[in-house]
Amino acid sequence: MRRITILGSTGSIGVQALDVVRAHPDLFEVVGLSAGSDRQGVAAQAAEFGVEHTALGADESVQLVRDVRADVVLNGITGSVGLAPTLAALDSGASLALANKESLIVGGDLVKGRAAPGQIVPVDSEHSAIAQALRSGSDREVRRLVLTASGGPFRGRTRDSLADVTPREALAHPTWDMGLVVTTNSSTLVNKGLEVIEAHLLFDVDYDHIDVTVHPQSIVHSMVEFVDGSTIAQASPPDMRLPISLGLAWPDRVEGVGVPLDWTRASTWTFEPLDEQAFPAVRLAKQVGRAGGTHPAVFNAANEQAVLAFHAGRVRYLDILDVVEAVVDRHTAGENSLEGVLDAERWARAEADALLAR
Fold it and tell me: How far is C-alpha 270 from the geometric centre of its chain's CA atoms?
């Protein structure tokens, strides 16, 4: 029986995690729940699962993690506000099931320095797939990581054709149901750029050996290529409960958590090269990742501001990446500490807002 604390329990990841717990009460006990602001939602969850300890907001989530001893902390908070709870979870000694990719990306070496070997278990479907595939060989046998991308709603379109994209069109993701910022990031491929940085930090693979391929069916969630030419892929229907269950039970699998592929039916899987001219986010993310320090925090914060401005009707779709790149180019790396990261984020948001206002 594993004692679980779920941060972001009323969001998509949290709700699906509770689905897993509900189906397997013999494996998991929820001992802590936190939400951003949904007091009624978290109260209803606490009543159902008999949870005594709840919290609202990032600060209370940090205290929750410190006060409640859990075997696993699932961080499903959205955005870089999840950094402090991530650090608290690592300091607690619990296994960190990490769905809040932003905290690792903006925290970088700060997060890695707090983590014991194997303490962070990725919940993003792509990184969970890589973690599963890596069990097929040793670190020295890995040649490259290949992350798959659905391509979003604008797959196959040229850069010029994206000039008049509307917020509604940007939110029409063909596969996943996510929040406003994450769904928009999937359309610009900023989300995939962030995942490239995350893969580098999680698996210590150089950026030159991390590739992205477009796979519209979203069945193969990522792949690992080994030095002998073999490629191991993890394939399953798109359902986040599978990587969530692995995050909670790692390294064990949870029986019946997902529906397997039906091999008795004909199907076609396709893979396409990434068009970096139309979607430059992955190239920019690799540049940011190589720069290191507080650059990824600036990249993430500037993008969040630009996405919100786009949805407010203040800028056009192509302005999002243009503003992000301009802010990144102006940044000078800051101190590698929690306060240094927060300072860099504040600077990036202010700089992005100033550019967006023009």
Answer: 24
Strands (E), 137-206: 142-149
Q: Read off the amino acid at residue 192.
A: K
- In 3-state terms, the chain is what percent helix, strand and coil (to 5)? 50, 15, 35
What tens digit of pLDDT does each residue of 28-39 get?
Answer: 999 999 999 999
Q: Order across the sheet with 95-98: list the strands.
A: 53-56, 28-35, 2-7, 72-75, 95-98, 120-122
- Classify burial at 168, counting beta carbons within 10 Å of its beta carbon; exposed 0-12, middle 13-18, buried 19 or more: exposed
**Phi, psi (deg, nearest 5) at residue 148:** -95, 150
Instruction: Give me the mean pLDDT over the 79-93 stretch.
Output: 95
Q: What is the maximum alpha-carbon separation in the chain?
A: 57
Give the integer Cα–Cα distance in Å for 352 and 323: 7
Q: Which two tokens stand for residue 172?
A: 């029409």
User: What is d(CA 306, CA 301) in angstroms, rounded to the nearest whole number?
Assistant: 9
* Neighbour count for residue 67 (Cβ, 10 Å): 12
Do 150 and 212 contact (CB within 8 A), yes or no?
A: no
Q: What is the DSSP letter of 172?
A: -
Q: Which residue reads 């750029």 in tokens?
A: 193
Residue with tokens 């769905």: 99
pLDDT in tens, 244-265: 999 999 999 999 999 999 999 9
Domains of the chain: 2-123+240-249 (3.40.50.720), 124-237+261-277 (no CATH), 292-358 (1.10.1740.10)
Tell me the H-state helices in 24-124: 39-49, 57-67, 83-92, 101-107, 109-114
The answer to whether 163 and 318 are in contact (CB under 8 A) is yes
Residues linked to residue 30 through DSSP beta bridges, in sequence order: 4
The fraction of the chain above a pLDDT of 70, given in percent, is 99
Instruction: Give the angle 19-25-28 at the CA atoms, nearest 5°.
Output: 85
CA angle 103/105/106 to nearest 5° reads 70
Q: What letters, b where the CB count within 10 A reaches 16 and e where it falls short, cover 122-140?
A: bbbbbbbbbbbbbeebeee
